[in-house]
Amino acid sequence: MIKAVIFDIGETLVTYSKPLNWVDSYIPALYHAASGCKLQLTDHDYYKAAEILKKYNTRLHPRQKEVSSYTIFKEILSIWHIDSNYLYSLKDTFYQYFCKEASVFDDVKITLEYLRQQGIQTATLSDVPYGMDNKFVLSDIAEIINYIDFPLTSNDVGFRKPGMKGLNMLRKKMGISEQEMLFVGDEKKDVECANAVSVLLDRRRISPDYGQKYTIDSLLKICEIIKDV
Fold it and tell me: 16 and 102 in contact (C-beta within 8 Å)?
């Protein structure tokens, strides 16, 4: 019997108009953040900061351990030779650049309503980009956050997928066994971290085989899985 369903966030619950890989947006976002803080910087300053961001780009340099926004932006301010008092305003303005255009998929709310009616617990487990603070990550799901019992990210866990620490943490919080949960995501690492309880969301119907337990093309099919288990 399924007692809990855990969701990835990006391209599972919400989609973004901006690319998931931020490389081409480093300079515009840094300029936006520096302007908001009234910092006067050179092109070389922006280039050096972009190189730091590139170092923490997990698509270029995969890592298991999460790195905080504090660590990343402290390093940027250090190479800019600017006082760390600017740290919080700089990083917040930087992240705001990427948090403008997220939209919840049409099949999400009705799925979450069904799970609530069935008494099934819900959670998120999502890797954050560049240490992005939870207040920004979870703002993307603000309209459905009341349906999520345990909204977690890699910030809370300290480690990223495909490590299993996050799912183990949630399992203990929910008081369930591994066999009593499903984890839904759209990437290979989501399948790898969940193994026998993995559900690959394949909205584009590409049909990749990552060894997932189930494959669905709409979240509504979670309801069908739960009825059949």
Answer: yes
Which residues fall within 8 angstroms of residue 31, CB to CB, at 6 or more apart?
46
Q: Which residue has the tokens 């790195």?
A: 67
Mention every residue, 6+ apart, whose C-beta is less than 8 A from residue 197.
178, 179, 181, 182, 183, 213
pLDDT per position as a tens digit, 113-155? 999 999 999 999 999 999 999 999 999 999 999 999 999 999 9
CB 90 within 8 A of CB 75: no
* Residue 16: φ, ψ to 5°: -125, 145
Tokens representing 113 are: 């309503």
Q: Which residues pair with 7 in a beta bridge?
A: 124, 184
The secondary structure of residue 128, as a DSSP letter, is P
User: Could you read off the pLDDT of 152-186 as tens digits, one per residue?
Assistant: 999 999 999 999 999 999 999 999 999 999 999 99
What are the angstrom distances between the C-alpha of 70 and each of 78, 97, 151?
A: 12, 17, 21
Rounded CA gap, 14 and 124, in Å? 12
Least Cα distance to 125 among 10, 21, 222 occurs for 10
Number of helices (H) and strands (E) in the chain: give both, helices first.
Answer: 10, 8
Distance CA 69, CA 16 (A): 21
